[in-house]
Amino acid sequence: MPRDLILERFLPYRLSYTSNLVSDAVADTYKALFGLTIPEWRLVALIAEREGITQQEIGSLSRMDKVTVSRAAIALADRGLIERKPNPVDRRSQLLALSEAGTRLYEAVAPKALEMERAVFGRFSDAELETFTVMLRRIDSAVLEADPGV
Fold it and tell me: How far apart are CA 83 and CA 59, in angstroms?
């Protein structure tokens, strides 16, 4: 058994641990205040940014799997927060848009999301945040280059 691997210092583990810590805090807040899961919030946010987006596009942009995206879309549609429209380019898919209720929800959640971001990252300088963001993007690129199937 390799003795050099110490999980606490293994960067993929640290990245996952920190990501889960932040996601759990965000999830608790979204659930308590708005009755949303993280996948549901991601769909609302992506649809707000790109009205007329397909579930497949959401999966690609968010790195969520098809089943997670589908379940979130069904839950949001059942609550009357999103609408499905025919996709004239690809009749097998539908374009998603926020309903009026979905738009109101987004307008309530977005400021809270930014407030939570400030609470977590506000203790870092602009330069540190820029460096961190650049590093995350470089990690994304390295993973995608190493495994194009990701």
Answer: 18
Task: Provide, rounded to the nearest whole percent, the portion of the chain with pLDDT above 70.
Answer: 97
* Count of beta carbons in the 10 Å neighbourhood of residue 5: 9
Q: What is the token pair recorded at 52?
A: 């007329």
Token couple for 53: 């987006």
Helix (H/G/I), strand (E/B), else coil: 29: helix
The CATH code that applies to domain 7-146 is: 1.10.10.10
Start-to-end Cα distance in the chain: 28
| Domain boundaries defined on the chain | 7-146
Nearest residue to 39 via CA among 84, 74, 87: 74
Model confidence pTM above 0.90: no
The angle at the Cα of 50, spanning 110 to 24, to the nearest 5 degrees, equals: 40
Residue with token string 């993929």: 12
Main-chain phi, psi angles of 53, to 5 degrees: -100, 150
Pull the structure tokens for residue 85.
Answer: 């429209």
pLDDT in tens, 35-88: 999 999 999 999 999 989 999 999 999 999 999 999 999 999 999 999 999 998
CA distances from 135 to 15, 74, 115 (A): 12, 35, 23
